[in-house]
Amino acid sequence: MQILSNTLAFVFALGVIVFVHEAGHYAVAKSFGVRILTFSLGFGRRIWGFRRGGTDYQVCLIPLGGYVSFGGHDPSERSSDPSEFPNRPRWQRVLVLLAGPAANVVLAIVLVAVVFMTGFAVRDVKDLPAVVGAVGSASAGETAGLVAGDLVVEIEGEAVTNWQEVIFSVITSPAHALTMEVEGLDGASRNVTLVPDTLERDQIGEAGIYPLVIVGEVVADGAAEAAGVQVDDAILAVDGVAVESFGHLREQVVDRAGQELDVLLLRGRREVELRMAPRESPNGAMIGVGQPFKRYGIGEAIVESVRFNADLTRQIFFLLDKLLENRISLRASIGGPIEIAAVSGAAARSGFRELLLFMSFISINLCIFNLFPIPILDGGQIAILLVESTLRRDLSLRLKERITQMGLVMIVMLMAMALYFDLSKNLPTLLDSGREADAPESQSTE
Fold it and tell me: How far apart are CA 276 and CA 262, in angstroms?
């Protein structure tokens, strides 16, 4: 069932993203009077389609992309017809090629705006303060001397404003020392050196530090309200056990109805200790607190979505910079169809909002990737057109064919690398799951 849900989520997410990308090319080409031969979702054998206005609209067997084929694409069939793509002015061809990536940007903005209008948990939008909420035992964070309540002021000399910046610095610096300036609850600043551990599967950094679990709602007549918990308080620990998330908080209280618990809170920049007894509910014992939750109107949602996607784009380029500096491996940076399917399936099972956010992430990534100056991609074709504009003449057909072949080889190599990383990440897990399923049940003697 998990494989099925992964596959369905993958086909849906990638299908929407590719359709919008190709629709961008199609719409601008159509507006310039370019003859369009084929609009295809997927590659390989045609499994469904129809013809209208001289264009073949089709769905193909392999759902790993798509394409729009213009008149004049085949050099052997070119003519002087002005509706053929090679005969249009270069500036029009550049705009047609840019339209696909631009459509992906618009899609990402719309998807995130929809999430913002329907409501979202604050943690999903990088809006948590750069304050350590919990530190795992024997973790890199504990070794560095970080403690709950530490405010991260700077990392590597760069000012930090939210938790997302903290965690992104950690995951992109496996086994590399990070110099951090933090401010304790006593107001004193100190420098610590954090060396994130390396997660074997993904080759990314992990420090065992968690953000604040901030109370966004205090349920009326609940245990938390009776004890004096306030909105914007952060729950640090329950009976001395650090709270890493709302899910972890629920695990600590769900079976303890009526038991007095010592709860440590962070209110502003001071600690507060309260005692409360979880109360029974149809879903198990609860103390009566909820996550911060926001909902925007359409105008504000669009503005915030633009900011969200601009921040995401900066993080992608930051990741590329870390890759060039050899601070993070290709394994951590490249995900193929298996990995994308696994993540899209997990997002779909978490909820439709999470799937939309993941789709916006993939859409922005597809935009950036397509603008790389690799000959077979939009960016490569735009680069050739810009070179021809500078030279004021077309490159020879033979040279263009060689450039295209080189680009095709690069793409095939990149896909092979992504598939190799996918298998190395996911195959061991699948094999272990298979062994567990085949193993006979053991009998307990206790």
Answer: 7
